[in-house]
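Sharing a chain and its predicted structure for anyone who wants a worked example. Both blocks are below, sequence first, tokens second.
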Amino acid sequence: MSLPPAAPQRQLKHRRHLDVQVFARDDGLWEVDATLLDTKTRITQMADGPRPPGAPIHDMLLRLVVNRELDIVAAGSDTRAMPYPRLCSEHGDAYAQLVGLNLLKDFHRQVRARLGGAKACTHLTELAQVLPTAVVQGFAGEVIDTRGTADGAAQPFQLDRCHALKRDGEAVRQFYPRWYRPAAPAAGPGS
């Protein structure tokens, strides 16, 4: 895999930090805190005046409460820093519309339909898109059987969901032999 080389002389201008934390609760539910933080390396003129370098342009928290089946049972957001104070956060409780969705069942499309465009905040809606795989990682080995070795176990969730874990691939042959399926031979000429 080739990575374009970094220029020897470059200057950082903007940083976006996404942080997703998954917490187990005592009541059997799980909380997901997703934060988006944008900062600049220079003084930035904003609607409410200048912001110094490193001060957040966006600081937003999206919190979900999910069950073990990855159903969202509670959701909300908090915008702590924004370009247009008070105006950016006037979307009300738009993110409560995530309640009832399942993170693995058509989640991305349903988020866009419910919260896309001017219906909510572009940044929070974009942040929601990273949550399915982040929560799966949080559940891996605790809620989700990632090995599939027990008798009667279902195929591990992650198989056939990325190129490294395709069922006819080397990683599955080595680490998930029970689930390995060799590729079908290519059809020859005249077949």
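Comments welcome. The first helix runs from residue 107 to 115.
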